[in-house]
């Protein structure tokens, strides 16, 4: 008896994890950095982009459901189900970010720090929940790893920083001096957790014949190239181009990581004799 | 009251009558089998062992599917059955990933069998997750699950574990029943005897 590949979730769920995580990471990293100067000069465009990404993730997830009309019930069981908690966290994040946009547009300076901190808290929960969601499937060993929630959280945060790098370049937010060390600081634990997680589980990729695309997309493009770019940007005078290259490369790797985590998962075999022989 | 099933692997010959009867009775769709029989072999000739292992929803006491269901569509009834309220299910399939026995199935209803209006199981199961319910409708009128009824070899024994006079209660006491994936501590309601 061999393990049976999970066939329930596929590319759309992977993209939900990516977009939801990237949106939450963008909001979280932006508000974390902005907290240093008391949330002055917050960009509505960046916050709106974060909300749009989280919404896109939710829409992709809804398209995967057999009966999306029942989705509103999905908040009924937060006591034990991470799917229920995730739905609550996502809606809370969208509501908090929209409130932040409203407060910014209304010019209510006094309310901004409170609403920003609420948004920051919700973004952290949205960034972390996919790892716990997958951890909840006890029978799937690849997912039932204590490292997965941390890996998913850090990937979301790093995706947010990558998007912020792109936004900084496009909107001239003046954040490059902060983003350069931040990207390197977050990239290091991402790499350590990545190695720790897949070091135990790489055989799953071999079983599913996913090793070659994994090495190219997730390791080379998603980890090694961004690391080189961020180290170069941190210690050389030329920063913008390597930072942009690192950001785009990491985002591509982050999409692939979610896909491989979902697709390489398999159920443990149902057997009496295999365990005795 | 706690309904359980005991399956005697010494008696099961893997004829799949239970699989077919279940499918007909519950009108399950293409590719969906609430009950199935898997084959296992071990050893080398002449010391070989072959088992036919019927697999169905185990109606676990520690049901992973029940814990992860976000809409509370999966619930436990007073008889110990783990059931699905199809009107509440949103078809996210999280329960299928959580089920250690792979006993749940998603009804995409893309290929309805001829003559079945609305697809497999009718519209009530379209777009939701479905599984064995121990023929709950039959139990409610004093009957037995269809797979138990049709088994020609008396390999499946069904009854109330809490009734000391029942055959299942005696088997659970006298034999040494085993369960699949005991390491998960799911406490399934389907027991197997004759494994060795």
Oligomeric grouping of the chains: heterodimer
Class based on secondary structure composition and strand pairing of chain A? mainly alpha
Order of strands, main sheet of chain A, comes to 1-2
| Amino-to-carboxy terminus distance of chain B | 30 Å
Number of domains of chain B: 1
Key terms:
heterodimer, A: 277 residues, mainly alpha, Formate dehydrogenase/DMSO reductase fold, two-stranded antiparallel sheet, 8 helices, 1% strand, globular, B: 196 residues, alpha+beta, Alpha-Beta Plaits, 3-stranded mixed sheet, two-stranded antiparallel ribbon, 19% helix, 22% strand
Description:
- The complex is a heterodimer of chains A (277) and B (196).
- With 277 residues, chain A is mainly α.
- Chain A has a single domain (4-267), classed as Formate dehydrogenase/DMSO reductase fold (Up-down Bundle), CATH 1.20.1630.
- Helix content of chain A is 72%, strand content 1%.
- Chain A contains 8 helices and 2 strands.
- Chain A has helices at 11-34, 44-64, 82-106, 112-135, 147-171, 176-207, 211-235, 240-263, and strands spanning 4-5, 266-267.
- In chain A, strands 1-2 form a two-stranded antiparallel sheet.
- The N and C termini of chain A lie close together (12 Å).
- The model of chain A has no long low-confidence stretch (mean pLDDT 93).
- With 196 residues, chain B is α+β, with helices and mostly antiparallel strands.
- Chain B has one domain (3-193): 2-Layer Sandwich (Alpha-Beta Plaits).
- Helix content of chain B is 19%, strand content 22%.
- Chain B has 6 helices and 9 strands.
- Chain B has helices spanning 17-26, 64-68, 94-98, 136-140, 146-150, 167-174; strands at 3-8, 36-44, 47-55, 74-76, 82-84, 105-106, 129-130, 156-160, 190-193.
- In chain B, the strands form 4 sheets. Chain B has a 3-stranded mixed sheet with strand order 8-1-9, with helices on one face. A two-stranded antiparallel ribbon of chain B has the order 2-3.
- Chain B is globular.
- In chain B, 47% of the residues are buried.
- At the A-B interface, helix 3 of A face strand 2, strand 3, helix 2 and helix 3 of B.
């Amino acid at each position: 008896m061999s393990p049976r590949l999970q066939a329930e979730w596929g590319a759309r769920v992977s993209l939900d994890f990516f977009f939801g995580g990237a949106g939450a990471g963008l909001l979280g990293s932006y508000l974390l950095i902005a907290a240093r100067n008391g949330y002055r000069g917050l960009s509505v465009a960046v916050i709106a982009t974060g909300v749009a990404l989280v919404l896109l993730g939710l829409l992709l997830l809804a398209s995967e459901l057999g009966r999306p009309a029942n989705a509103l019930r999905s908040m009924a069981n937060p006591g034990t189900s991470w799917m229920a908690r995730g739905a609550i966290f996502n809606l809370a994040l969208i509501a908090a970010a929209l409130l932040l946009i409203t407060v910014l547009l209304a010019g209510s300076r006094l309310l901004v720090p409170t609403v920003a901190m609420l948004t920051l808290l919700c973004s952290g929960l949205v960034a972390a929940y996919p790892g716990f969601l997958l951890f909840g499937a006890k029978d799937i060993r690849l997912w039932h790893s204590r490292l997965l929630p941390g890996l998913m959280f850090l990937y979301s945060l790093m995706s947010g920083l990558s998007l912020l790098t792109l936004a900084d370049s496009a909107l001239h937010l003046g954040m490059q001096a902060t983003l350069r060390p931040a990207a390197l600081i977050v990239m290091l634990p991402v790499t350590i957790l990545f190695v720790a997680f897949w070091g135990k589980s790489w055989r799953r990729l071999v079983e599913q014949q996913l090793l070659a695309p994994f090495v190219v997309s997730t390791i080379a493009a998603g980890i090694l190239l961004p690391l080189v770019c961020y180290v170069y940007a941190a210690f050389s005078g030329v920063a913008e181009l390597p930072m942009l290259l690192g950001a785009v490369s990491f985002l591509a790797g982050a999409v692939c990581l979610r896909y491989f985590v979902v697709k390489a998962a398999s159920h443990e075999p149902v057997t009496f004799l295999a365990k005795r022989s | 009251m706690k309904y359980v099933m005991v399956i005697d692997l010494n008696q099961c010959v893997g004829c799949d009558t239970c699989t077919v009867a279940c499918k007909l009775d519950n009108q399950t769709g293409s590719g969906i089998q609430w009950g199935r029989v898997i084959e296992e072999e071990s050893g080398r000739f002449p010391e070989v062992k072959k088992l036919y292992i019927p697999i169905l929803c185990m109606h676990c006491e520690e049901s992973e599917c029940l814990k992860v269901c976000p809409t509370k569509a999966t619930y436990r009834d007073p008889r110990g059955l783990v059931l699905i309220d199809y009107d509440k299910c949103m078809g996210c399939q999280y329960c299928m990933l959580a089920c250690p026995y792979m006993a749940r199935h998603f009804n995409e209803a893309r290929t309805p069998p001829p003559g079945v209006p609305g697809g497999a199981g009718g519209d009530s199961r379209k777009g939701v997750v479905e599984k064995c319910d121990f023929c709950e409708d039959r139990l409610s009128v004093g009957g037995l699950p269809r797979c138990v009824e049709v088994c020609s070899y008396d390999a499946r024994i069904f009854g109330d574990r809490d009734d000391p006079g029942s055959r299942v209660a005696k088997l659970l006491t006298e034999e040494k029943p085993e369960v699949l994936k005991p390491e998960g501590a799911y406490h399934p309601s389907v027991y197997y005897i004759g494994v060795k």
